[in-house]
Amino acid sequence: MNRPGDLLGATQRLKRATRDLQHQWDSTKMEWNDAATRQFETKYLEPILPTLRLFLAATSELEDIYRQAINECRDRDKGELE
Predict the structure, then answer these.
(1) What is the pLDDT of residues 30-79, one digit of tens each?
(2) Dist CA 32 CA 25 (whole Å)
(3) Which DSSP state fits 6?
(4) pTM score of the predicted model
(5) Would residue 5 be called left, alpha or beta, if left means φ above 0 and alpha means ψ between -120 and 50 degrees?
């Protein structure tokens, strides 16, 4: 589906960015493991990562519902043309 505001594309980009963030953070923690690391993780990452995962799950469900609605509309339109 290529359309303006493509939810699936945006969700995939956010999912990839979230995965990259987690991977980069894991790599960073191997080199940088002190009080500042723990403070950064507690203040910024711990709150945002679970929220991002919930958001991604919700947008995935929304995309499925949107696709189903599009398909139902196409099926209805086909029936009217026949």
Answers:
(1) 998 899 999 999 999 999 989 998 999 998 888 888 889 888 998 887 77
(2) 10
(3) -
(4) 0.67
(5) left
